[in-house]
Recover the amino acids of this structure.
């Protein structure tokens, strides 16, 4: 049985989404509804759903923090977000936290049904893999190969769990587990750590590189988002970091 969490702020939307999910000929339990970031996180911890649908209107500006915290639980859940925004910068930020699909409201239920079908097919494949045979599941070399690939390609702007799935032919749940086991960090945190370490070196040793150039070199196509991530992790902006360390030298 697959478990789903639907977090929306509109009763009719909740009924419509539930109806469309239940129309699929598979046992899916709608295990919870939520209203707000705290409640969403509490239900995710309790239910450990394979499918999470979140309407960004109920968590407003906290959507990235909420999704990040869900990812830090390392459940491997498929996350679908509903939004009123068609801002491409949002899409990029969402991908950083491995949001599988984002849908613009009002919901196109033909697209939604196709999305749910893909989710069901994905987890059916995962279950079959677990039931039968997956050489990599208990193979240490697979973990090492995954980490080595991330280490060598962290600056690829397309680096994601989906890319790792395609590269190693392993389900996302196993990939999350192997990365956490090898590094002590979840995928997003480990990728960010590598990029920040590289950024700091470039800021000091490549003084002629602009912040935009460094952003591109380490895998961020959005300079402003890179600056935000850098300040969140280092405690100062890239230019402040460069200035501080030049003074120390």
């Amino acid at each position: 049985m697959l478990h789903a969490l639907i977090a929306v702020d509109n009763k009719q939307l909740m009924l419509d989404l539930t109806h469309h999910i239940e129309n699929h000929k598979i046992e899916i339990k709608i295990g919870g509804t939520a209203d707000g970031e705290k409640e969403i996180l509490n239900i995710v911890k309790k239910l450990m759903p394979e499918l999470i649908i979140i309407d960004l209107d109920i968590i407003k500006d906290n959507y990235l923090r909420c999704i990040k915290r869900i990812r830090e639980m390392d459940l491997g859940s498929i996350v679908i977000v509903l939004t009123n925004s068609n801002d491409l910068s949002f899409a990029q930020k969402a991908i950083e936290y491995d949001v599988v699909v984002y849908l613009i409201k009002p919901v196109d239920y033909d697209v939604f049904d196709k999305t749910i079908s893909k989710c069901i097919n994905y987890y059916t494949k995962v279950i079959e893999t677990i039931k039968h045979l997956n050489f990599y599941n208990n193979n240490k070399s697979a973990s090492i190969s995954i980490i080595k690939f991330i280490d060598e390609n962290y600056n690829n702007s397309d680096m994601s769990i989906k890319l790792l799935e395609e590269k190693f032919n392993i389900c996302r749940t196993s990939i999350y587990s192997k990365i956490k086991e090898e590094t002590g960090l979840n995928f997003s945190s480990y990728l960010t750590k590598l990029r920040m370490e590289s950024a700091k070196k470039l800021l000091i040793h490549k003084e002629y590189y602009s912040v935009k150039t460094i952003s591109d070199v380490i895998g961020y196509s959005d300079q402003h988002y890179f600056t935000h991530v850098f300040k969140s992790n280092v405690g100062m902006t890239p230019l402040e970091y460069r200035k501080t360390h030049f003074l120390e030298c």
